[in-house]
Amino acid sequence: MGKKWRESSSDSEPIAPTAIPEQELKSDKKKKKKKKKKKDKHGKEEKVQEEVVGLSPEYQNGSGYKRKKKQLDDTDLEFELKSDKKKHKKGDSSDSGSGGADEEVREGNVVVSGKDVKKPKYIPVESFEGSKLPGEVLECCKGFKKPSPIQSRAWPFLLNGRDFIGIAATGSGKTLAFGIPGIMHVLNKRKGKMSKGRSPLCLVLSPTRELAQQISDVLVDAGKASGVTSVCLYGGTSKGPQKSALKAGIDFVIGTPGRLKDLVEEGVCCLSEVAFVVLDEADRMLDMGFEMEVRSILSKTCS
C-alpha cells in the first residue's frame, strides 16, 4: 500500500519501487473516505425507503441488500404494494359477513356501493310519478320538478328496509331523503289508526339544537297531508311543552342526545316501538362526545 512500481523498458531489469509522496497518499485516502460516506448515505436512504414499502427483515436491517439489490426495481415495489392492497380488500369483503361482494354503481359524480345495488328494485327514482308513492306523501314535493340525487337513490333502499349511509351537501334534500321513507314506515305500521297517546315509530338524532329544529320544520310540513306528527326535543328550554307533545301521541321524535336521554330516563319518551332510526351527522355527534348517550338511546329502540 502506498507504493507504485515504475514500468521498465523491455531490455532492463525491474527498478526498485519508489514511494509516492505523502500528500498524494492523503489525497487518495480522503477520496476513498468521501466515497465511502456517500455510499453509506445512499445505503441509509435506501433502507428508509424499504421500511416504508414493507420489505422483509433481511432488507430492513441491511443484510442481503448488496446481494439482492439488483433484483429489485420500482416495478417490483409497485407490484408488491398493489398485491397487498388487493389482499386487504379481499379480506375486508370476507370479514363484512355480507355473504357476497359489494357492487358499485357510478353515474356522473354519484357513487352507490353495497350488496345487490344493481338489482332492479334499487334503480334510482327519476321522477315523483315513478316513485309510486301516495299523493298525500308527495304533497311536500310539489315545488320540485324531480327528486334530488340523494333522494332518488336513497328512497329505493329505505323503502325496501335497507340500511343506508348517505353523504351529500347541505341543501341537497337530505331531510326528505329519509323523511319520506319514514312517513311511509309510519303509514304502513299505523294502517290509518292514529290513536291518542301513541308511541313514536321513527327517531332522528341530531348533534345540535339548530339542526334538530331545521329537520323538525321540514318533517312537520311533510307529514301534515298524511297526518304524521313530529316533536322536537332539545335542551336549553322547558321540558313542559315537549312532555305534553309526547303524551298527546307522536310519530316522529327529532332530538339532541342529551335532552332525549333525559326524557327517556324519566319515562316520558318511550322508544320501544321505534324501528326507523336516523343519525344525522353521526360523525359530529361522536366528535362532540355523545357516543354514550347515543348508545344508551339506541338500546331502548326495537331496531
TrEMBL record:
Its main location: nucleus. PROSITE patterns: DEAD_ATP_HELICASE, HELICASE_ATP_BIND_1. Belongs to the DEAD box helicase family. DDX5/DBP2 subfamily. This is Helicase ATP-binding domain-containing protein. The keyword S-adenosyl-L-methionine does not apply. It comes from Punica granatum. One of its GO terms (molecular function) is RNA binding. Residues 1-110 are annotated as: Disordered. InterPro entries: DEAD/DEAH_box_helicase_dom, DEAD/DEAH_RhlB, Helicase_ATP-bd, P-loop_NTPase, RNA-helicase_DEAD-box_CS.
